[in-house]
Design a protein that fits this description.
About 45% of the residues lie in helices and about 20% in strands. The chain has about 850 residues and is of the alpha+beta class.
Amino acid sequence: MNTTDVVARTTPETPQGGNSTRIDLGVEGMTCASCVGRVERAIQRVTGVAEVAVNLSSEHAQVTFTNARMDIEAVAAAIEKAGYRVAHRDLELAIDGMTCASCIARIERALQKVPGVLSVGVNLANEIAHVSGIGLDEAVLITAVKQAGYGARLTGKNSSEDDTKQRESRSALVHVGIAALLTAPLFVVMLLHLAGNPAGMPGWAALALATPVQFWLGGRFYRAGWRAVRAGTGNMDLLVALGTSAAYGLSLWLLIRAWIAGAAAPSLYFDSSTIVITLILFGKWLEARGKRQTGEALRALTALRPEQARLREVNGTEREVPVGQIVVGDVVIVRPGERIPVDGVIREGESAADESMLTGESLPVRKQVGDKVIGGAINGEGRLVVETSAVGAESALSRIVRLVENAQAAKAPIQKLVDRVAAVFVPVVLGIAVVTFLAWWLLTGQVEHAILSAVAVLVIACPCSLGLATPTAVMAGTGVAAKHGILIKDAETLEIAHRIGTVAFDKTGTLTEGNPSVVRLHAAEGLSATEVLRLAAAVQRDSEHPLAKAVRTRAQADGIQPPAATDARTLPGRGMKASVEGRELVVGSGRIIEENSLDDMGLSVHAAQLESEGRTVSWLIEVGSRPRVLGLFGFGDSLKPSARQAVAALHDLGLRVTMLTGDNPGSARVAAHVLGIDDVQAEILPEHKAEVITALQQGGRIVAMVGDGVNDAPALAQADLGIAMGTGSDVAIHTAGMTLMRGDPALVADAIDISRRTFSKIRQGLFWAFFYNAVGIPLAALGYLSPVIAGAAMAFSSVSVVSNALLLRRWKPAERDVRIVMSEPHVQSSSASPKIRKIA
């Protein structure tokens, strides 16, 4: 049996509100869309299975169980019963810490408890554990050994799925070459006959050339077809086997009959069967090669994982260890030019990191002490000392790979139509072939012509192209998007994204840098600016809000030490409240003035001026028995350099752009005017953002929401498509359907563009697949196509669908002339200002 690397993961998720376990299994023997449906139905009948997604292009089945107990063996048995094979995998682990025979038994028991393990053998002499099974994950096996009290790591002798596929591809190409050599004489004779040359080949010579092609090189069609028959169904292999066998059998019968009668050999059709098989084998090789290329982006990401790390010991010495042995808190050394082995925080050193393969950022990013680094990035010119913050499945690279894998495994909603067609495709084609044979026989009385027409029908029918149209485009599209820093959650996201009509942006941290500073400070009469700053810094001492950080930064710069605050709490959408030196103080937006009906102490003039300049305004007030206004702050926050181009690019795509912000209408108006945004909704409370998205969706409009904060999560979930900045919170990223790996708003237009292009390729592939079968089968039934032409057309159909999808690999984000947008814009005229709505 051919072995294929199987990647399995145990992923705790809550799709239905509870924990689930997901595994990936390699499935061998699938050839067309009907195979996909058959495998899915077989797995779905296994107890405990919640969801199944089978990908013909990657030849993997993603199975989600309803609870943590997963019966991989039952799933494998169901796949085998359906007529397919589950890819097995053999792994070698180097074991550390064994001392006696009891250690062997303990390790074997630990490994045998891992789901999917079929056999375990541990050798004390060479300290190697041999593990065989299905759905094996190296990390899970290593963890099991560690929990048993020993160390474990991969030996480096384990073959990867890529290596296996390359060996299979080379073997398939050799088979194609042999088939071509055996078929060439028959093909030449056929051409001579078509040219009117009576030269021929002895019948027995033709039989000798055709037999190995039919039953040895074409044996794969018989084996797969027989498995389908045993499972009570049909597939592409069955059609090819029946069609070529009919041509071969007819030729053999005519040859034997002529030999018995002592007559000259009649026209034989060995050339038809051999040429058809050779063409289909060649087409299948090209198809497999194309399918493998669709996954190159994912393999490139996986290859970024370093195998070794330089660990700094407690005594200061350094030694190289496998990355799998690094744990959170370990300190690793990264030399210039090396790939950073783990996610972590820089403790010593300064350098630049090339993160282009992870985030799509073309330029190296400067890194210094306190900055985070991503495992897989390439260190620049400096030596770095990094404290590990995440390893293994929790690292950023592993999460990216997992997201891309899930997207490529998921099935697009449009595929449901294909599945329904594929379920009846082969039986319908067999029926058409039978009707074709009977019709030609009854109408003409020529059995040979009737058989050849039926053979043409069987050979030209191609369910493969139907099954490949969607997954190849999804794999190519999501892969190239990931290469440029756009992570797409699933195939359904692609289908939604191409229909987007409105894009709503959060302002702070999405369109702006998210690093505001205090640019103006006004104190009420009788108070000093220093006192106002001291009290405001105390209230916001523990807040992580960007404006709070700006106040603390200003206080620190002015040498002010804020007093202690107690009973601090957040007022959602309003600000922060705390008790300072026995006074109840609140720092927040203008809402707190309105809600407490306070006199603004003449500061409203300053507030209006700041708002007209595009500043964000916060107030400091005292509540309690003597509520009063103490002062106000004006904050400036630069718009991101690419923000204006991002909005323009969305307009070029025909989309309407809206901005949602908790800022005052004046500040929102200025930012929107500079960026060219169509509509602004200001002073929105976090809990109301989702309601605004619902209003935008009225009339059937498809809305995308772009945000980065925790308070954006409800709106991201409510939108038809949520797009999260990778620089934002984990909650926002988890909620969104797309994640942009760098905080560049221009990527939003790029994400929608690649989604549109991918979905266009899906539609093109499905159109040509349906059109090809809808035209080809009737032509073959009417006798206009010979089996040879039919076989060539069948091979071409699959190759063309895959090749068309591969064109997506050439996609690149649009190049834009990015100019720095001034941080202090002033509006000269309000005539072109966007529509502003203040949300109460």
